[in-house]
Write a structure and sequence with these properties.
alpha+beta, Ribosomal Protein L15, Chain: K, domain 2, Four Helix Bundle (Hemerythrin (Met), subunit A), 2 domains, 3-stranded antiparallel β-sheet, 9 helices, 15% strand, CRISPR-assoc_Cas1_DVULG, Cas1, CRISPR-assoc_Cas1_N
């Protein structure tokens, strides 16, 4: 199993990244802000537009260190990657399956079934842990509806129908997401998903967490030799890591949503951590983003037992485990792709 290394988050605006030996150097207006060894890093994520030196980009590409650029509010801009080191036979199999919608649907339905299953058990845990603070009857009713949709997705062989079932499950889940916010209710609420731009505090954090998770899944897929840009459920679109979006579906709720809820319910963030712009967009302050990213790194270090492998691994290695299992399935070492099923 891959060793989980550190991620360097550069959150200050107007910071230029350069290379000095085997170190990344952070410069702002020619002033050196910091210098860190690259051998301890698996990725560098920079918020802002200033950029990085060609030497640093080449160094990272050669050593498979992910170098990612986001806007200040966390929207993906670009990712630096080196030459493809993927297994040719594995990728040819991936491309062939992607072109065959019936075969692709047999993998895609496991991504969606895993997502809905995990969301169902998020709901069930809320009724168990907070029976006096949520509408238990409503939660149980939606949990049962999700169970029915899981049964439908498990036998679905049509991608459009599969997307329809996934959409129906998302509507049901979103109906009660606001009830899972147990603290700071006057400031933190969820009515619907808003993306570009996020229009409230919860959506601002969800967008950033999904961006970070997508980057982790993309890196994991490339590490096992798969093409992160050719998916089975999400179809090809220039610049979109479609396979990464496929694999992260089963992790959205149990990894990203629960993380955001914990920041609110444990009062790690509050209303003062956000700014509203003239166009209605909500962004996090620099200090809030630092708190968010620190907590995200701590989350990745937490240990769990992987439900299929039976091994104790950190949350940060779950995307790598799923990428490995998908590669094994495509090589016909497994009869079926096993989604990550949390309970």
């Amino acid at each position: 199993m891959k060793k989980l290394l550190n991620t360097l988050f550069v959150t200050q605006p107007n910071v230029y990244l350069s290379l000095d030996g085997d170190n990344v150097v952070l410069l702002k207006e020619q002033e050196k802000l910091g210098r860190l060894p690259l051998h301890n890093l698996e990725s560098v994520i920079s918020f802002g537009y200033t950029g990085a030196s060609p030497a640093l980009m080449g160094y990272c590409a050669d050593r498979n260190i992910s170098l990612v650029f986001l806007t200040m509010n966390g929207r993906f801009l670009a990712r630096v990657i080196g030459e493809s080191k993927g297994n040719v036979v594995l990728r040819k199999t991936q491309y062939q399956i992607s072109e065959d919608e019936i075969t692709a649907s047999k993998i895609a339905r496991n991504f969606i079934a895993g997502k809905i299953y995990n969301n169902k058990w998020i709901i069930e845990r809320m009724t168990r842990d907070y029976p006096l603070r949520v509408d238990v009857s409503m939660f149980k009713e939606i949990s049962q509806q999700l169970s029915t949709i899981i049964d439908e997705t498990r036998v679905c062989e049509d991608l459009d129908s599969l997307r329809g079932w996934e959409g129906q499950a998302a509507v049901n889940y979103n109906k009660i997401f606001d009830q899972m916010i147990l603290q700071q209710k006057e400031d933190f609420y969820f009515y619907s998903r808003s993306r570009r731009p996020p229009l409230d505090y919860v959506n601002a954090m969800l967008s950033l967490s999904y961006t970070l998770l997508a980057n982790d899944v993309t890196s994991a897929l490339e590490a096992v030799g798969l093409d992160a840009y050719v998916g089975f459920l999400h179809r090809d679109r220039p610049g979109r890591a479609s396979l990464a979006l496929d694999v992260m579906e089963e992790l959205r709720g149990v990894y990203a949503d629960k993380f955001v809820l914990s920041l609110i319910n444990r009062k790690i963030v509050n209303k003062d951590d956000f700014l509203k712009k003239e166009n209605g967009a909500v962004i996090m302050t620099d200090e809030a983003r630092k708190k968010f990213l620190s907590a995200w790194q701590n989350k990745k270090q937490e240990k769990i037992t992987h439900p299929f492998l039976g091994e104790k691994i950190s949350w940060g290695l779950v995307p790598h485990a799923q990428a490995l299992l998908l590669a094994r399935y495509l090589r016909k070492d497994l009869d079926e792709y096993p989604p990550f099923l949390w309970k």
